[in-house]
Design brief:
GO molecular function, one term: oxidoreductase activity
Helix content: 25-40%
Organism: Marimonas arenosa
Distance between the termini: 10 Å
Number of helices: 11
Domain Enoyl reductase (ER): 10-320
Pfam family, one: ADH_zinc_N
Protein name: NADPH:quinone oxidoreductase family protein
CATH superfamily of the largest domain: Medium-chain alcohol dehydrogenases, catalytic domain
Strand content: 25-35%
């Protein structure tokens, strides 16, 4: 079968589309014939050797897929060949087939677009966990979302509104701000005067929750616009800089800085993870959440797509379609 292969850590252009052996369903696993593979920011870091996890080489990147069950391994119950499923693993998604733990897979609701299913796994899964478990976002609170036109940002905007928050979306261009507005943001702003704009929109109080996927200067602004008892969520560093926190601000302003590592959460709290996915799929079925799918591309274009994602040029969700 065909798959994208990273032979050694390095530039994205070194990725190759190659023939590899078909995966077999091991104990507790299912093999999925892939209809869509989600492209995520960490995939690009992984290929370059810049992610927390450094797999043995060669490997195939890709952590989320949707498609049809092609084989069922020993000990697996609840899945049959022909079921349409979405799943999350560590590697292997940029391919025609992948073996994944059945415990990390979920049946798709009837009629679900496989690209939407991919978006619900990592992008919506991350935002949901961040706002529900890590921030304990409450109705009536003000939520500021950085990167509000990206896949996780749009998810955070939509989920924040479902949870009853007033949402301020932050994006770098007017076009991106309008995407955040269309996703449900109450107000949209840019990064240039971030601290002052958030303070003005909140009557001087500041943000109860800030969803930060950017880091860098945006984080520095957030550390100064948080409200008392606020929660500053550290999701990632798409801006390229891992910022340093002036901890005196957390003392004086009495807010919390909260790390969000969705992958760890899914492994350490599988029952809560399953409940979250049930809720997300339910929201999708009822029309409360709707991913923005920017585009669908063949496997051969994986490197170019990853460049755009890492360069913060993507809006919404991008998938590869074997």
């Amino acid at each position: 079968m065909k798959a994208i292969v990273c032979k050694e850590f390095g530039p994205l252009d070194d990725l190759v589309l190659d023939d590899v052996p078909e995966p077999q369903a091991g104990k507790g696993q299912i093999v999925i014939g892939i209809e869509a593979a989600g492209v995520n920011y960490p995939d690009g870091l992984l290929v370059q050797g810049l992610y927390q996890m450094k797999p043995d080489r060669p490997f195939t990147p890709g952590m989320e897929v949707a498609g049809t069950v092609a084989a069922v391994g020993e000990g697996v119950t609840g899945f049959s060949v022909g079921d349409r499923v979405a799943g999350k693993g560590g590697l292997g998604g940029y391919a025609e087939k992948v073996a994944m733990p059945a415990s990390q897979c979920f049946k798709m609701p009837a009629g679900m677009d496989p690209a939407d299913a991919c978006a619900l796994m990592v992008a919506y899964g991350t935002s949901h966990h961040a706002l529900k478990q890590r921030a304990a976002l409450q109705s009536g609170e003000t939520l500021v979302v950085f990167g509000a036109s990206g896949a996780t940002g749009i998810a955070a905007v939509q989920i924040g509104k479902i949870m009853g928050a007033r949402v301020i979306g932050v994006a770098s261009t007017e076009e991106k701000r309008q995407l955040a507005k269309a996703a449900g943001a109450d107000e949209v702003i840019g990064y240039d005067n971030l601290k002052d704009d958030v303070k003005a929109l909140t009557g001087g109080k500041g943000a109860d929750v800030c969803y930060d996927v950017v880091g860098g200067d945006a984080f520095h602004a957030a550390s100064r616009f948080m409200a008392r008892n606020g929660r500053l969520l550290v999701i990632g560093f798409a801006g390229g800089e891992i910022p340093k926190l002036p901890v005196n601000l957390t003392l004086v302003k009495e807010y919390s800085v909260v790390g969000v590592f969705w992958g760890n959460f899914t492994m350490h709290e599988p029952d809560v993870y399953a409940q979250n996915m049930d809720e997300l799929f339910g929201w999708y079925a009822s029309g409360k959440v709707k991913p923005l799918i920017e585009g669908r591309y063949p496997l051969a274009e994986a490197a170019e797509v990853l460049k755009r994602v890492l360069g913060r040029g993507a809006t919404g969700k991008i998938v590869l379609t074997p």
